[in-house]
Design a protein that fits this description.
The chain is built from six helices and six strands, in the order E-E-H-E-E-H-E-H-H-H-E-H. It is of the alpha+beta class. It has two domains: 68 residues, P-loop containing nucleotide triphosphate hydrolases (Rossmann fold), CATH 3.40.50.300; 88 residues, Rossmann fold (3-Layer(aba) Sandwich). A hairpin with a 2-residue loop joins strand 3 and strand 4. The C terminus is likely disordered.
Length: 191
């Protein structure tokens, strides 16, 4: 697929010489939508996400994200993506705003740009009122939303969410899916 945002061809990842987490996987994902990987535990979903986000090297095959080879240009891939792992990766001692600004700085934004983007993203994700509280006072759902805000601060071309609703109550889960749907609505751009 020439215009694919994610391209995978013959991807293989083996652990400890015997566990084939990925066994010749090929896929192409068109831009502008929400795609889900479904399968039982141990099927290789997280392994694939870790390869696509440059956290793991594949043993065989090729993978490109936003037109960039994950093996040959990992820093360029990381500059184009956002990743929310299975649990929120936030600093509990910092405030919500400080967490998002810090990630913005890691994306290469100036101090002022990071500050402005943090406000925009925290407002969009409905955490602006709690932005100046320490994260240790946040509920689980608020921490997940903060993790997503941090992923969005750099305006990624591709957003990877690994089990984004794990541990959320039904209302928070619904809110997260509504926010996710608004990110990919044609003609609208989240944050």
């Amino acid at each position: 697929m020439d215009d694919a945002i994610i391209e995978v061809e013959g991807l293989v990842k083996v652990f400890k010489g015997e566990v084939r987490a990925l066994d010749g996987l090929s896929l192409a994902v068109a831009p502008g939508g929400i795609y889900g990987l479904l399968g039982p535990n141990g099927a290789g979903k997280t392994t694939l996400i870790r390869v696509l986000t440059t956290l793991l090297q594949p043993d065989e095959g090729t993978a490109r994200v936003a037109g960039v080879d994950v093996r040959h240009n990992p820093a360029e891939v990381r500059a184009r993506i956002g990743l929310a792992g299975q649990s929120a990766a936030v600093d509990e001692v910092l405030t919500g705003r400080e967490n998002v600004e810090m990630v913005g700085r890691l994306y290469g934004l100036s101090r002022g740009q990071a500050r402005r983007r943090a406000i925009e993203v925290l407002e969009r994700i409905r955490l602006l009122e709690a932005a100046d509280r320490q994260v240790k006072t946040y509920s689980g759902g608020m921490r997940r939303r903060l993790d997503l805000a941090a992923c969005l601060v750099g305006r990624p071309r591709v957003l990877f969410l690994d089990e984004p609703t794990a541990g959320l109550d039904p209302v928070s889960r619904r809110d997260l899916w509504e926010l996710s749907a608004s990110w990919s609505t044609p003609g609208r751009r989240c944050c």
